[in-house]
Amino acid sequence: MREKKYEDYNVNPRQFINPITIESAYILGLLWADGSIFRKGKHANISLVTTYPDFLYINPLMLKTGKWRLYFRKSKLHPTWKERCDIVTSNRPLADFLIENDYKTKSQESADKILSIIPQKLKHYWFRGLLDGDGHIHTDNKGSHSVSFSSTFDQNWNYLEDICKSLNIKYVIKRRISKKSHKQSNFSIYGMYKTIKFCEYIYNGYPEDDIGLKRKYDKFLQLKMTEEKNRYRGVSKMKNGKWRAYTSAAIKLKPVGLGVFDTEEAALNAVKNYYQIHPKVFLS
């Protein structure tokens, strides 16, 4: 039987093998987080699990790489759960490639093999896919800020350790066994500035490239806004709903009123602009 050419597959495996594209680098990260492989004989399926409304963002990107089959499922036992969608392709060469790079054993192995293949300029797209699949960005008004990833108890986190070391970011790995014998491990980065630094690496080029879940990027923007409030002090809400802007009190300097604005963002920009013009009085 004539061997099937790459071009004959609904999803051409070449774009995931060589040369890797922006889209395929991101999808390879998603597959590490939420993908699965079934291989038996000459047949093999690769599937990616997602839910609504994330499917609406992910599917157009998947379609750029070929024709994937879609299977929708609603839980009868848990009617409040989000509708699940399996995005599937039958593709033996792609499955072989993923298995060779530890995707079959990704619950224990590190992602070192696949990351060694992806060009340096595209690696952050792989990590963006990983974040969209397995990661969580947290920020609140109480000063708690973090980015974290969850996996099995025996997960080898070497690949995330390496990227954090290269970015000079401290991290924490925790392994837990609950009272019900549920095992899991978490890789976390705590603190506003460390979390922002990691996310700035992940979101390099976004939103112009339009690759990734907007809801998670919005969390990053929320964190950035919190950071700006802390950096450029001098914004307060008035009883009439407007916002007053003023400089912080520096040593031997009195606060300077910068006006009243309709929105918090406008007041914040006024303070920011003042410190850009007068950097010597800026207190970080």
Structure explained in plain terms:
- The protein has 284 residues and is of the alpha+beta class.
- The chain folds into two domains: 6-226, Endonuclease I-creI (Roll); 232-281, GCC-box Binding Domain (2-Layer Sandwich).
- It has ten helices and eleven strands.
- The protein has helices at 14-17, 22-34, 54-63, 92-100, 112-117, 123-134, 158-166, 192-202, 214-231, 264-277; strands at residues 35-40, 43-51, 69-73, 84-90, 135-139, 145-151, 172-177, 183-190, 235-237, 243-246, 257-261.
- The protein has a four-stranded antiparallel sheet with strand order 1-2-4-3.
- The model has no long low-confidence stretch (mean pLDDT 89).
Essential attributes:
23% strand, single chain, alpha+beta, 2 domains, four-stranded antiparallel sheet, GCC-box Binding Domain, elongated, 284 residues, 10 helices, 37% helix, Endonuclease I-creI
**CATH topology of the largest domain, what is it called?**
Endonuclease I-creI
- Global geometry: elongated
The radius of gyration is 23 Å
Number of helices: 10
Output the CATH class name of the largest domain. Alpha Beta
Strand order of the largest sheet: 1-2-4-3
Protein structure class: alpha+beta
